[in-house]
Write a structure and sequence with these properties.
Elements lengths: L24 E9 L2 E9 L12 E4 L3 E5 L3 E4 L2 E4 L6 E5 L6 E3 L6 E4 L4 E11 L5 E11 L3 E4 L3 E5 L4 E3 L2 E4 L6 E5 L6 E3 L6 E3 L5 E11 L5 E11 L3 E4 L3 E5 L3 E4 L2 E4 L6 E5 L6 E3 L6 E4 L4 E11 L5 E11 L2 E3 L5 E3 L6
Parallel strand pairs: 4-11, 13-20, 22-29
Antiparallel strand pairs: 1-2, 3-6, 5-9, 7-10, 8-9, 10-11, 12-15, 14-18, 16-19, 17-18, 19-20, 21-24, 23-27, 25-28, 26-27, 28-29, 30-31
């Protein structure tokens, strides 16, 4: 019988493979050692195979296997070839809950129930004459990639620096890459590593729908859509710096006007106006008939828009007694000395 040594760590215990059921035999092998030939008895407890029989080998197809919680897996990280069929696959340590190894073809399948790893696993292939070969791969199970819509409606202001992250992502295989569609308005950019939108918009725009997509290292994707509007900066103009009204006489004035901003605009005044006068919160108009006289007082009118921009201007208001006629028919001012 011709034999072939497949693996030898020590000459006393060589390992062989064979094609007949020989469990214990003694063979004489000629070993060349330092240019001398020695005939040594070798006690064979392994198995031998006739010369020319195929040798079993394994191939590492996937060195790092990334799977996701809750997503069906189907992957073969290690394959066997050669040997005497049928081949049988086994794995150590045991796979995480929800995953199984097909002993016939080495396929790992199932649905992982929890994150795990990274953990090394060794797949061993055994053929019909007990040849074995192994390879080790690393398994890691990640949370499924998900995105969260943090800011459904983003409102920005022209010429004002912006910094906002409307969509965030969790899970997946890092690194995560963010992208956006359509392209952002001029002056704004999306940071691909964080999803941050920043910059200074130059023009008004929108509302426009934008979709942010996060992609992980295994090309898993998740997306969310938000709305973007760019408003003109809110500004106020002082139309009437100083005004005198008269007790008991109706009048209407608009000392401060506003432009830009996100409508509706809301006007307010401090301190409170004299009795009989009111400020329209929608237009900034002051109207009515003052019920009392008042010394010159400074009033601040503030305008707030729908995205909390504010702008204000102040004016001075005096309430006097109205003019009246004396017995000679001359106009006089009550409280003033007649000239």
């Amino acid at each position: 019988m011709k034999i072939k040594i497949l693996e030898t760590s020590k000459i006393q215990t060589p390992k062989f493979v064979y094609n007949s059921n020989i469990n214990k035999n003694i063979f004489s092998l000629t070993i060349k050692d330092q240019n001398k030939y020695k005939i040594l008895p070798v006690y064979i407890t392994g198995i031998i195979i006739s010369d020319g029989q195929p040798i079993l080998t394994t191939n590492l197809i996937i060195s790092l296997l990334n799977l996701y919680v809750g997503i069906t897996a189907s992957s073969t990280p290690v394959t066997g070839s050669g040997g005497v069929s049928p081949l049988a696959y086994s794995i150590a340590p045991s796979l995480p809950s929800g995953l199984t190894l097909n002993s016939v073809n080495g396929l790992i399948s199932g649905i992982a129930g929890a994150i795990a790893g990274p953990t090394p696993y060794t797949v061993t292939v055994t053929d019909n004459v007990l040849q074995t070969s192994s390879k080790t791969f690393t398994l890691r199970i990640y949370e499924i990639l998900t995105t969260t819509l943090v800011i459904p409606t983003v409102s920005l202001i022209t010429t004002t620096p912006a910094s906002t992250t409307p969509v965030t992502a969790t899970g997946g295989v890092p690194p995560l890459i963010y992208s956006i569609s359509p392209a952002l308005p001029s002056g704004l950019t999306l940071t691909s590593s964080t999803g941050l939108i920043s910059g200074t918009p130059g023009n008004t725009a929108g509302p426009i729908s934008y979709t942010v997509t996060a992609t992980d290292n295994q090309t898993q994707t998740s997306s969310k859509t938000f709305s973007l509007t760019i408003y003109q900066i809110l500004s106020t103009t002082l139309q009437i710096p100083t005004k005198t009204l008269y007790k008991g006489i109706s009048d209407t004035i608009t000392p401060v006007t506003a432009s830009g901003g996100a409508i509706p605009l809301v006007y307010s005044v401090t301190p409170s106006l004299p009795s009989g006068l009111t400020l329209s919160s929608s237009s900034g108009q002051i109207s009515g008939a003052a019920g009392v006289t008042a010394l010159s007082t400074f009033y601040n009118i503030s305008v707030t828009d729908n995205i909390s921009q504010t702008s204000s201007k102040g004016f001075t208001l005096t309430i006097d007694e109205p003019a009246s006629l004396d017995f000679k028919g001359n106009f006089i001012w009550v409280g003033h000395v007649e000239s």
